Amino acid sequence: MNRPLKQIHLAAHFPGVNNTTVWSDPAAGSHIEFASFTHFARTAERAKFDFLFLAEGLRLREQGGRIHDLDVVGRPDTFTVLAALAAVTEHLGLTGTISSTFNEPYEVARQFASLDHLSGGRAAWNVVTSWDAFTGENFRRGGFLPRDERYARAREFLATAHELFDSWDGGEILADQDSGVFLRDAGAGAFAHRGPHFDISGHFNVPRSPQGRPVIFQAGDSEEGREFAAADADAVFSRFASLEAGRAFYADVKGRLARYGRTPDELKILPAATFVLGDTDAEARELAREVRLKQVSGATAIAYLEHVWNRDLSGYDPDGPLPEVDPDPGENTIALGRASVRQFRDPFAVAKEWRELAAARNLSIRELVIETTGRQSFIGSPATVADSIDHLVQEDAADGFILVPHLTPGGLDAFADTVVPLLQERGVFRREYTGRTLRDHLGLRDAPGPAAPGALTASGRTAAHR
């Protein structure tokens, strides 16, 4: 018996801390003006996407002692942007990346509970463990925790935040226009947590929000990250967008859920994916080649190679061969604050692999970087891209995709206008929003515990007085 078609989940990533944007294109707009965020969010909502996702850069990246030229200077604070977007959208989920390393549970729980109220139940939290002392220098906790301790702190951080969210389970806010607002159960919001990382007690002053808790996202691909996702996340970002690698990751992470008393539908797996559209597949392939050449300039290629070699390679020709000198195995001091550095834990093995590939295909440095950092997940006509996305989801390589356009803010427009209608015609993507909250959009059950009858609405009136 054939199983029913899976419904595809789609989301949009507003770039800001990566190398995706083609800045040289005349259509490339601001990454810091609110008009760009508004256009992007409204396009995603028009296309009936599940949510918009914002990454967070806690420190400007550096390379060779200078600010990295592809970073975004002046990027607004995540919570500020998401709260503002809540006022100009009605259905779109609002997902922000907030670190568990350099924040405290009370303040983060209060911010997300507030965002969930302001948006009517559309908040989501991408929990990350900031990884380097360079970023930590911006905070009182100037060092950084070892990997095991980072995840231990993150698990306790999230558990503590859940205790705060759930502290209102028995509380009810009552209100009338004459006597004001008062709390029937004075014990609601009271909390006390004692643990190795947090020792706090008090009264949580934000009532239980429409979702009860925000949707929890997690992005780690390590063993610890996968286990953390299986235990605590509602959705996990994945870097595996191909069929074989995607199915392996999908089966591995979902296979871990049972030991936490969870079922496979309680965790959504959403790879990041780029795309290039054309009227024909051939046109799209040519456009994709042009995009990659613009994304990886000669200077960008050398900078990327320095992440592996951990040496100053500015004297090398990007159109020439790879350096004959071996990588420096010491602590990385060339690229600071760069997440990609973490991918190269064995630089000698990476250098050997790249040299073999370059020799076999006669690739220059720039050509090699383009080859090994390929970004376009979907290339083709709208029909081809729709078919590829649907195939990967139906074959359990993903539950959907987080789209990362190479132009901001208009890079999502063509996908919304051409690919989404084809997915709707197939019956695998919604034509209209049918739920109120982000949990509804993602097909997730409500967070444990009842929502308080007095959950505040955007107008400031309680649910009992709507």
From TrEMBL:
Pfam families xrefs: Bac_luciferase
Presence of the UniProt keyword Flavoprotein in the record: yes
GO molecular function, one term: monooxygenase activity
Enzyme Commission designation: 1.14.-.-
Ranges of Low complexity composition bias in the record: 445-458
Similarity comment text for this entry: Belongs to the NtaA/SnaA/DszA monooxygenase family.
This protein's name: NtaA/DmoA family FMN-dependent monooxygenase
Originating organism: Streptomyces goshikiensis
